[in-house]
Amino acid sequence: MAQTAAPSSLTDLPSPAPPEPRGPRGALRGTRVYTVVHEEVARIDDVVGHVVVIRDRTGRDVHQRTLIADRVIADVVDGEGYAFGHGTVHTEEGNQVHYSFVGRVGGGPGRNGAPRSSVHGTWTLTGGTGPWRRRTGRGVFTDLPLGSHASVSRWHGHWEPAP
């Protein structure tokens, strides 16, 4: 797979296709800039280049001015594989929005075998506080590296009232 170059600006990010609409809903979209605050890399001895990476990240959505904290777990061989995790958005109003995500990692290994490439995947709103307590949601994201300890993620989707 070809290596993905880091974007020269936030406007250079690819935008994934929007999810299919269902019933009453609200649109969600943004661009998040993340910093890795802790990383652990475990080498797995079954095949050459196999690692499991755990990253704790913090970030900010540049459009919504929200703060984000999440944990990403990637299982990759030579930088190709899958990533999943959970996170919390802290809104300006003091509410929390909880989400999970899963995506495909591609582009090759970086330092210590950790992926240095893009992740494309889906996210699911799993709960929250305030008005987010009674909402569900889903969408897509693309996460691209900005150096070895930072990334930028463009995401969008929708929310709807919980059943």
Architecture overview:
It is a single chain. With 163 residues, the protein is mainly β. It has one domain (23-161): SO1590-like (AOC barrel-like), CATH 2.40.350.10. Helices cover 0% and strands 60% of the residues. Strands 1-2-3-4-5-6-7-8 form an eight-stranded antiparallel β-barrel. A hairpin with a 6-residue loop joins strand 1 (26-43) and strand 2 (50-61). The termini are far apart.
Top keywords for this entry?
AOC barrel-like, 60% strand, disordered N terminus
Radius of gyration: 16 Å
- Named CATH topology: AOC barrel-like
The CATH class name reads Mainly Beta
Pattern of helices and strands: EEEEEEEE
CATH superfamily: SO1590-like
> What class do helices, strands and sheet pairing give?
mainly beta
Q: Any idea what the CATH architecture is? A: Beta Barrel
Domain module count: 1
State which percent range the strand residues make up.
over 45%
Q: What about the largest sheet?
A: 8 strands, antiparallel, barrel
> Strand tally, please?
8
Separation of the first and last Cα atoms: 41 Å
What is the number of helical segments per DSSP (H or I, 4+ residues)? 0
What general outline do the C-alpha atoms trace?
A: elongated
Helix content: under 10%
Low-confidence stretches: 1-11, 15-23
Please state how the strands of the largest beta sheet are arranged side by side.
1-2-3-4-5-6-7-8
- Mean pLDDT value: 84
